[in-house]
Design goal:
Blueprint: E1 5-10, H1 17-30, E2 38-43, H2 46-56, E3 61-62, H3 81-86, E4 91-94, H4 97-101, H5 107-119, E5 123-128, H6 132-136, H7 140-152, H8 157-163, E6 164-168, H9 183-201, E7 210-213, H10 221-225, E8 232-235, H11 242-258
Parallel strand pairs: 1-2, 1-8, 2-3, 4-5, 5-6, 6-7, 7-8
Helix pairs in contact: 1-2, 1-11, 5-7, 7-9
Bound molecules: 1,3-dihydroxyacetonephosphate.
1,3-dihydroxyacetonephosphate binds next to strand 8.
Length: 262
């Protein structure tokens, strides 16, 4: 079966609940005629989740930006999967680069979160990516494979193929200080990640979507999605204006659908 284009955004700490609801209601209208060709997702802040689910949750996949690694406990400031489940959220971002590099999360923490997410039947979007220093030292492939194995290596092939998505987000490419990866670099790294997934999960590893993220914008999105092995885009800044995001989606969708390997 042909894959749909995976595309979505994480709004980080930028939108209030009211802004998130307004935004996603507009996106819901804009993508209405193409939603069957997309795996579209939206990942707002925790305090926006409930109202966003109420507004569009039947039509759009809504995810949390993070999750605790335990169901309950003395973890002030954390959010449990039980709390997400209660409001209809069963999709979660794990190990975003800002969680790892600003808040000090480790591979061990990401692994525990991935395990718990799978136990709850959640879909997890696991982010992996090398730092600038790792890239310059020629350690990009090794470091993403280590992150992948550490966080997801204990899943069964069935769990992984049913509930794991990967976001390849090179740390040096993300955010206002980032420079986007070239399409050919992204393609090479996606091939590395795919081989890691196949090594871990065998044939099932071919079914796991791998998305590219990091300074995707209207001008580079089509050339990135043209590359084999890139199953979708995970976008920050360039997705936060609905018309701009809709423009990107409409530009990349035909390119993706023409691609031979999808
Ligand atoms: P930017 O597109 O703003 O670089 O952010 C990407 C990202 O971190 C998505 O999670």
């Amino acid at each position: 079966m042909k894959r749909r284009l995976y595309i979505g955004t994480n709004t980080k700490m930028f939108q209030t609940g009211r802004e998130a609801e307004e935004y996603i209601r507009r996106m819901d209208e804009l993508i209405d005629d193409i939603r069957d060709r997309l795996e579209f997702f939206f990942i707002p802040s925790f305090t926006s989740l409930e109202r966003v689910v109420r507004a569009v949750g039947e039509r759009i996949r809504i995810g949390a930006q993070n999750m605790a690694w335990e169901d309950r406990g003395q973890f002030t400031g954390e959010v449990s999967p039980l709390m997400l489940e209660e409001i209809g959220v069963r999709f979660v971002l794990i190990g975003h680069s800002e969680r790892r590099h600003v808040f000090g999360e480790t591979d061990i923490m990401e692994a525990a979160k991935i395990r718990l997410a799978a136990d709850h039947g959640f879909t997890a979007l696991l982010c992996i990516g090398e730092t600038a220093q790792q890239k310059e030292s020629g350690l990009a492939a090794q470091s993403v494979l280590e992150q992948l194995k550490a966080a997801a290596g204990e899943l069964s092939p069935e769990e992984a193929s049913e509930r794991l998505w990967i976001g390849y987000e090179p740390v040096w490419a993300i955010g206002t200080a980032g420079t986007p990866a070239s399409a050919s670099y992204a393609e090479d790294m996606h091939a590395v990640i795919r081989s890691g997934l196949v090594e871990l999960f065998g044939e099932k590893g071919t079914e796991i979507p791998v998305l590219y993220g990091g300074s995707v914008n209207p001008s580079n999105a089509p050339e990135i999605i043209e590359r084999n092995g890139i199953d979708g885009l995970f976008i920050g800044r360039s997705a936060w204006d609905p018309d701009r995001f809709n423009g990107i989606i409409r530009d990349v969708l035909p390119v993706f659908e023409r691609r031979a390997d999808r």
